Amino acid sequence: MSEIVTNENKKLVLASGRAHPELAEEIAEHLGTELLPLDAYDFANGETYVRPGQSVRGKDVFVLQAHPAPMNNWVMEQLLLCDAMKRASARRITVVSPFYPYARQDKKGRGREPISARMISDLYLATGAHRIMTMDLHTSQIQGFFDGPVDHLFAFPILADYIRGRVDVDNVTVVSPDTGRVRVAEQWAERLGGAPLAFVHKSRDLTQPNKAESKTVVGQVSGRTCVLIDDMIDTGGTISGAVKILKDAGATEVIIAATHAVFSDPAAERLANSGASEVVVTNTLPIPQEKRFENLTVLSVAPILANAIREVFEDGSVTSLFDGNA
User: Fold this and answer.
1) Which of 275, 276, 274, 269 is nearest to 291 (CA)?
2) Cα end-to-end distance, the chain, whole Å
3) What is the pTM of this model?
């Protein structure tokens, strides 16, 4: 059976796209269920076909998809899955997108730009989604783009607890790579026993994607272990530059911690040679073997996602999973 049945005769179904089968299987295992059988393939011209392998009529369906490269293919597959569930009379459809597509395009930085993150929300709604579950959004305002409930989950508890177990918390400084992540850095600092904060000042050319130059660090980092946090690592240029700035400022050790390991080339090479003692990420995105390196640690978010799915299904509290801070 690929479903869970409650006393109220509600039925949960977990369906997954093809982008990250390992994460899907792990979530299903934590839920004590099996993935919905799915027929999915691509035509010769790239057109995607999906069809649920069994009835979903009247069921609560959670449509999981990771969004690594090529992102557009996986976005389309998830949208088609939602549409298939809607037309198959699912009772409720929840989109589970641990790495929200197009999250960096959440506003108009210049004239005539699209707000692509809003468009993704509109597409989810149009294809039948009643709810979105995601993790560590690039900016929290994206929650307001969707006309329905949005469960914004956080990976920092598992990341911070892992790092807490391997450092002297009395000698740790939490470092934000820019001023925009300071609020998240405060949550990290609290989790690490009230560690002091610092941030790296950087400049960015809005006309050039993936181009940012780290300038200087503000805060006390000399002689300390620095935990450099971010929501995602794409090409690794910004975070690697920040490591150098921290080292030049006298940091004895730098640990990088990020939720989403996008790892577009040449990220793996940059991170491996950045001078960071460890790079800690999660498995919201699949990380192929060729992009793994010696000082990379990958933590699983499957327990967090599984617990959140169960709370939503049972009409419980997702906020309670994060000490009321979700």
Assistant:
1) 269
2) 32
3) 0.92
